[in-house]
Amino acid sequence: MKIDRVLLAHGSGGLMSQQLVEEIFKKEWNNPYLEPMLDGALLDLPAGRVVMTTDSFVITPLFFPGGDIGKLSICGTVNDLVACGAKPLFLSTALIIEEGLPMSDLIQIAQSMARTAREAGVQLVTGDTKVVEKGSADGIFINTTGIGVIAEGIDYRPQRIQPGDLVVVSGTMGDHGLAIMARREGLSFSTPVNSDCAPLFRIGQVLEAFGGNVRCMRDPTRGGLATVLNELARQSGRGIKVVEEDIPVNPAVAGACDMLGMDPLYMANEGKMVIVLAPERAAEILAELQKIDIAAEAAIIGEVRAEPAGLVLIETELGAERILGILEGEHVPRIC
Amino acid sequence: MNDKTYMKELLQEIQSYKQEVSLMEVCGTHTMAIARSGIREMVPANIKLLSGPGCPVCVTSQGDIDAVIKLCQEPGIILCTFGDMMRVPGSDSSLQEERSRGADIRVVYSPLDALEIARKNPEREVVFLGIGFETTAPTIAVSLEQAERERIKNFSLLSYHKLVPPALEVIFSDPDIRVDGLICPGHVSAVIGLKPYELLAAKYRKPCVVTGFETVDILEGIIMLLHQMSQGEARADIQYRRVVRKEGNPVAVELLERIFQPEEARWRGLGPIPGSGLKLRSAYECLDAAKKYQLPQIADLPIKGCSCGEVLTGKISPRECLLFGRGCTPLKPVGPCMVSHEGACAAYYRYTPAKERN
Amino acid sequence: MCLGVPGKILEVKENDVAQVDVDGNQLDISIRLTPEVQRGQFVLVHAGFAMEIIDESLAVETMDLLKELQKYRELGI
Question: What domains, with CATH codes, occur in chain C?
């Protein structure tokens, strides 16, 4: 293709649209479901409860250390399916491209989506492309919708959370949020911290073997760990208490947050899970998780209590307990 | 001895003190650190920790905020500011609202960033909103020095900088405020040194300890104050010895004295205090935004129900304000104490002790 | 705003600028206020400036505060 930028004509449905789809998307994502290029994909689903989830990605910048919007769009939806206890199978995608986006960027994003999908064991089976006038999108907006199937014996719901359960995080908190903030205009420091963007289906695989010992999972994206813990407390009607010094945080993230006056517990993660476990086999589950690279730093950070219902408490290094509230009033730039 | 054991020992030492005392922690960063670490909860009830006027955003008067908002409505101006100021409510608007209406307002981490914006936009007028105490003022002074050296004509400072010691005098001499000892700001003191507190301690017979911001620092600082009190002493002392020297930072002080002169300034909660603000000396007049744009002084329009003034002087605790958590939250702040990163109300709200959850 | 964090000077450059490391994050800051600073020293970083040199040996001294106080109490002072 000789044209080096995406033009409005690429979204009009005519010849140039077809070329875009054939030469980029079909080429990069090809699989038997996508191949027929029908208006929809005919899927073969294994037996089990079907889960569907959707997410849109409007992150800026489009490319960042640790990933890009393409990788993120796959991981975000895959991880939501994993959190539901499902094996992720199929993804659809809708792209809204800003007129003028360099073609090389679009190709790189498409390739990134393909690579991540392969790694996560999912297939991109159907999609849609639109092009909007310059200024109407930040380069590109991506939506992905995913379908997965939940196996027998898996039931991840906050309602199953009970007093005495343990709360685990699969690794360090705040990496993605900090990695993005540091690369924005106006913050001129170089950080070794990369986005932790990663598909987490292997966490789902490890936990599957433990059936009902896993109560619930959530991925702490926007709003960070604190937000997810509050959701779990509210939806389960239980209290959660975590210990501050047990929460893994990369020293570079802690240092940068100190400089900027931010809190890693409220910053986004794109490759982490919060997992609530029954206490009986928790140590064993933790050991299994630590064997996989994406959860090598998994740690128990707290426990579930009956009271205070719906609230999250955090114990400081001094042994004082205070409330870990939800994010209120802070305008956080677009980070996912 | 590891950190945790040492902290427990420090706490035990504090808990063994039986007298009723009120200690004021002046600095907003201390307020945040004390709230975040839970020190207030672990310290016995006979030791009251009051928050003082050490939040430079919070003590900026209502009228001054309205003046800034008026300035950023001028066409062609780029207003550069630290992040905190964006959501502080004026009597009618805020910088954030003005930005959404098209004003060019940019958040910077350092005044040097603002200077760079001026270099990159020679056809625009760049104004830096100068809010901060003696820690921040020298950094602005360096930027102004550089602007002068490079003959950058489109850069100026709108100075609402304030000095801490004059405010402490007002606190100590107010009969309605009971303060037995002062936890003095660590980083302001890194610049100004110990002398101002030596004068205060001698005049008002109250111990003053310059304290750091780690939990251990604050506990040690409290112990040093309690110990002085039990000995009937009233000295100025430094806990934060790894950063603060008795003579402060002479380079920074010299720079401040060369570029600024003290003038009367309006403090929210404390009223006008002579010699408590920093104004550019006449040699630097061309860098003075207030002169350049002939900003009028706008009268303070008090906001109904807002008790920021009383919170800032330790007369009430944030929870005693009728609007706390009801009409005034970080999402919809009525006064600056709830919206500033160092505001006492924001600290109390963000870091609520478990037992105060209702 | 009053936030100050410790950073290690990696390199002193020209024009009153130094490269500093804060827990692995690296940035250029002005050393106009601490002109005598040298590579390897720790400084307090605030708003893009080194405000003061940090002397860690003095930190050790303050840790002994408690022992001193205990000593005073034992002596009945």
Answer: 5-74 (2.30.30.140)
